[in-house]
Amino acid sequence: MVSTAKNTAYLLIAYIYQKVIALFYFILLARYLGAENFGKYTFAISFVTLFSALIDFGLFPVLNREIARNKSRTKKYFSAVFGFNIVAGIFVLILVSVLINVLNYPSTTKALVYLSGLFILLDSLALCMYSVFRGHLNLKFESIGIVAHKTTMLIVGVILMALGAPLVLMVIPLIVGSISYVGNAALFLKKKLGLLPKPRFNIKVLKALLGLSWPFFIAVMFGKLYATIDTILLSYLTKDIYVGYYTAAQKLGFGFLLLVAGSMSTALYPAFSYYFVRSKSTLSQLFHKGIFYLLLIGIPLIFGITALARPIIVFIYGVEYVPAVSALMLFALAIPFMFLDYVMGVFLNAVEMQKINTMIHGIGAVIFIILNLVFIPVWFHTGAAAAVLISFALLIGMELYWVKKVVALDMNYFAKKFILIFTAALVMGGVLLIIKDMVHVLVATMIGALVYFGVSYIMGLINKDDIVFLKSLIRFKHSKL
Fold first, then answer.
1. Is 400:344 a contact under the CB 8 Å cutoff?
2. Tens digit of pLDDT for each residue in 276-299?
3. Where does 52-139 have alpha helices with state H?
4. Which of 209, 235, 261 is the C-terminal boundary of a domain?
5. Which of 1, 112, 197, 274 is 20 to 30 A away from residue 372, measured at CA?
6. What is the pTM of this model?
7. Span 125-151, mean pLDDT?
8. In terms of C-beta density within 10 A (0-12 exposed, 13-18 middle, 19 or more buried), how is residue 432 classed?
9. Could you tell me the residue range of the domain that residue 449 belongs to?
């Protein structure tokens, strides 16, 4: 049995590798395709991703949990879910094919959607198999699969770019990466657990599992809406080139979100769960510290990205993407709210308010769709980014209402920390505005980071106790998960 600490380390490293490689690859792809073709490409993926929740229907976390509780049922549960995924996957492929034709998109976009459906199905089948390993508390093989997936995608993609491949063929790297992903999963499943990915349609078992999975399905569906509906509406209501601008800015903003807030929430969730039933005072302290650390990172990102938005876009994507600058600035303003949403979301789940959390994000998804419908026809990609900012700000307001029912918020603590963080970030932003046209954007970024953390240290914003606390949190995650 792989130890919990090693399990956590394996998956964390794999996820970081996945996000970094994916961001790097999509930057290369954006430069290669140009804004308009990049918009077509990202729309096709978003369109299929919106319906991908119908493939697993929330069954993967249920499969993981039920196998962990009773490993003797591994084969019965897995084969039933795997069979459901295949049938549901074929249904989704047909559904998206019909819808994209009904919406009367051009032939190139249709071809991209058809091919995107294939790799989405393959990824879902792989995730089904890796859910079995999660149930057996072994994340090593999933981590290997993730690294192989993204490495294969990158290599094939770079080769196709070097050969001057047309737009439609640029989905091939994703398909080949997914074949590697599902192939590794099947190999590990057979070698380590003696299981073959063989579907069985046990209606009784499926009925029982689906009865447990619907809350997960609803939560995932809201997540898919947040992740894709803006891109889909932007494509439908405007032109592909605006989708390209929007996605270019979005990738940079969400890159920070997934790496920082994702890692923090992963560390905090088991600790929140543990102290909720043992020590409300420690739970409160942990929540306040978690919010502080995310504000410590999120607020300076507003000033840094806003000051350097144009140089960042030109350096990363080229001058063709300069219209993305306005969207990137709005994403920068949204980053602290998105950070806080991650922490408050896992907090509500940890304190047994998962239904409330799902309701909040359901309301948020409706608001998000309405805002996009109102803003996109007027401000195009900038309007979609504004919808992100406003909807996440409203989410935080709703989440705070319920968080305060569990822990008493120390507003004096937050006010003092916020003033210090804002001051340090303001100084950094002023320095960046002065030097941004004098030095390369990478040099300016390093200088900005040094100024911010230097001022923070001088003002006593960061001290040894904070470092000790972070270390203890990491040790807790390894010992209690």
1. yes
2. 888 888 889 889 988 998 899 889
3. 53-56, 59-69, 74-102, 107-135
4. 235
5. 112
6. 0.90
7. 86
8. buried
9. 238-481
